[in-house]
Specification:
This protein is an alpha/beta fold and 253 residues long. It contains seven helices and eleven strands. The strands form two sheets. Strands 2-1-3-4-11-10-9-6-7 form a nine-stranded mixed beta sheet.
Length: 253
């Protein structure tokens, strides 16, 4: 089965008309949600700092950091163009809060998840459908080689065909490339596939992907365990590209 396409931003003018009409005013507002209901990554404060500075330096968005699930209410989300999760554990969200987040994206809002955002909300199947997967272990913490599967997408257009990076590498469950457009994947030749904890029989380890969700857009990037990954300019450009893509901005602006 051919994987779904996330689309391109540089479309013919007629096709872009509806997108241009919906283009947000600048600076946009991005809600960076960093509630760690499980393991708390030491890099969370660095991620908050990096995303805040990316928005400030580009003048494209203001970042509001929160760990309060009530900030995910429909009324509050109406004031944001994108929601960004760097989270863990099961969040104490009421049915109304859950529905509000899903409806926000279905109706055109942007959603970005990073690293342990898939290690989140195991009690909520619709969340896995939104983000595209659930965490199923990290067999490797080392320098790996990644394959850039789409060098035209705004998240990855600045990268070479491959990149090497040291990070904690996730495998996912409830995931299939038939349901997403893969942007980055693990070059299996750079790791030991017999390492303890390797579970995927298909040996398909995606590190970043995008997808449509209703009228909204979703990007997930599995990198980000270490402080130095967030300080890596390649990662920062991927994060900036993710914000621009889910909010339908031209990423070259």
């Amino acid at each position: 089965m051919k994987p779904p396409s996330c689309g391109r931003l540089l479309l013919p003018l007629l096709a872009c008309a509806s997108l241009a009409a919906a283009a947000p005013n600048l600076p946009m507002r991005v809600l960076l949600f960093t509630l760690s209901a499980g393991f708390k990554h030491g890099s969370v404060p660095v991620a908050e700092e990096v995303m805040t500075e990316l928005g400030r330096s580009t003048r494209l968005f203001d970042t509001v950091v929160s760990q309060d699930v009530n900030d995910l209410s429909a009324a509050n989300l109406a004031g944001y163009q994108a929601v960004f999760f760097y989270t863990t554990g099961n969040h104490p969200m009421t049915p109304e809060l859950r529905a509000g987040l899903l409806d926000y994206v279905k109706n055109g809002g942007g959603f970005i998840g990073v690293h342990s955002a898939t290690d989140t909300n195991y009690h909520w199947p619709e969340y896995a459908d939104l983000i595209g997967a659930w965490f199923d272990g990290h067999p490797w913490t080392q320098t790996v080689r990644l394959k850039v599967e789409d060098r035209e997408h705004p998240v990855t257009e600045h990268l070479d065909a491959t990149l090497e990076i040291r990070d904690e590498i996730y495998q996912q469950r409830n995931w299939s490339r038939d349901k997403v457009q893969v942007l980055l994947s693990l070059d299996n030749a750079s790791v030991n596939l017999q390492a303890p904890g390797v579970k995927r029989a298909d040996q398909d380890f995606a590190l970043a992907w995008c997808k449509e969700y209703g009228q909204g857009r979703v990007v997930y990037n599995g990198l980000g365990h270490f402080d130095e990954v967030w300080r890596d300019r390649r990662m920062q450009k991927m994060m900036l590209g993710a914000v621009k893509w889910v909010t339908r901005l031209d990423w070259r602006s």
